[in-house]
Amino acid sequence: MTETRSRLRADAQRNVEGIRQAALDVFRLGGLNTPLDEVARAAGVSKGTIYHRFGGRQGLIDAVVTDLVAEYISGIMTSVEAITDPVERFESYLRKIWLLQYDEPASNDVLLRALPGSEPLTTLCEHASEFAGRLLGEAQATGRIRDDLTPDDLYLLIWERGIIARACDQQPRDGYQRRFEYTLSGLRTPSVASV
Amino acid sequence: MTETRSRLRADAQRNVEGIRQAALDVFRLGGLNTPLDEVARAAGVSKGTIYHRFGGRQGLIDAVVTDLVAEYISGIMTSVEAITDPVERFESYLRKIWLLQYDEPASNDVLLRALPGSEPLTTLCEHASEFAGRLLGEAQATGRIRDDLTPDDLYLLIWERGIIARACDQQPRDGYQRRFEYTLSGLRTPSVASV
DNA sequence: TCTTTACTTGACTCCATAGTCAAGAAATAT
DNA sequence: ATATTTCTTGACTATGGAGTCAAGTAAAGA
């Protein structure tokens, strides 16, 4: 009855779904800047249709980014929650985020981006920031993590890692990992007897 | 007499000099990927002339890169040589290289090794690598720098920093500096009593 | 079935950059 | 002063991606 409001035509509906799916696949692999033609090709549709249905890259990202990213990030948060030692919990969080940035270009883009659109994503990011801030505070309370480290530093350390991950294309994963461990260990309170 | 061999015409000579100068200025400011049209404009010459005289970007870079970069790098090496404490010397070297990467986009491009050509530059880079390796070894001999750190790690830490510096455009210098200190401190031997 | 309306298409424009080249301009040689 | 040679130019092609739209196609409604 009243449900007929603004219903898409059958083919349009099919296409919207196809495009969403294609965008998920393509973005997952290549990040959020992959040319839209590739998405179109993957969806078996012309580029025009994407613009028509989603209004361009930003719209498409908005339509897809939550499915693409949210569960990774909240997954990390909950998985880390289980760790009891505050320092270990904090470090584990950072490690997982940093690996996510390497493994998932799209998630990395989200973590890097201004991403002005997409309200739920903004919420998620803020949530994650608060979470990270809390972990940091708790870890610092043990005295084993430097207390000159601010939540802002944390954000920027993640930003830097993202920039690196983006450029790492060819670099092997374990080298990336090996190197971020150095930074991680630099966040611990230095031993007192330093020259 | 025999000196007349392969002499450029007066205007050509003037242009070559003008272009070199312009390239120095423009590359210094914007790095080695600045559009050649900008160099041409700065030299008051058409793009075609640059291609004609230098054979393209690579040729132009070759003609300019030594003046643009060599003295910075060798300057750092000699200035650091004066420091007596091996650890301080090693760390000071890294700090200076990392700041150079922030301050001088062109030097950064060179350190990132976009440049297969240019023999003297390659030599310089190898020289610097050996130098850094030596500093590392000496610093490790004190026991105060982690001994699992390899010269290769060092190279990649510089590479990573360069990637960051490139993206840092808007970021303030002191934040950049602040953050690389964390990594630096992560290179020191950790205190024994860990967890 | 035919009409109406919603949808899709691909060819088009636009932008920024790399790189080329025929024709005109300028220096040099005589 | 003219012929010769060397240079320079700017308009041209090519690339790769964003974004648009008139015209054609297909679904829905009668």
Supply the key terms.
homodimer, Tetracycline Repressor, domain 2, 9 helices, elongated, disordered N terminus, DNA-binding
Radius of gyration over C-alpha positions of chain A, nearest whole angstrom = 20 Å
Specify the biggest β-sheet of chain A: none
CATH architectural type of chain A: Orthogonal Bundle
What is the CATH first-level class name of chain A? Mainly Alpha
Q: Give the H and E element order of chain A.
A: HHHHHHHHH
Question: Largest chain-chain contact?
Answer: A-B, 28 and 28 residues
Gross morphology of chain A is: elongated
Query: Count the strands of chain A?
Result: 0
Total domain units of chain A: 1
Distance between the termini of chain A: 80 Å
Number of helices of chain A: 9
Kindly name the structural category of chain A.
mainly alpha
**CATH fold-level label of chain A:** Tetracycline Repressor, domain 2
* Uncertain stretches of 5 or more adjacent residues of chain A: 1-5
Oligomer: homodimer
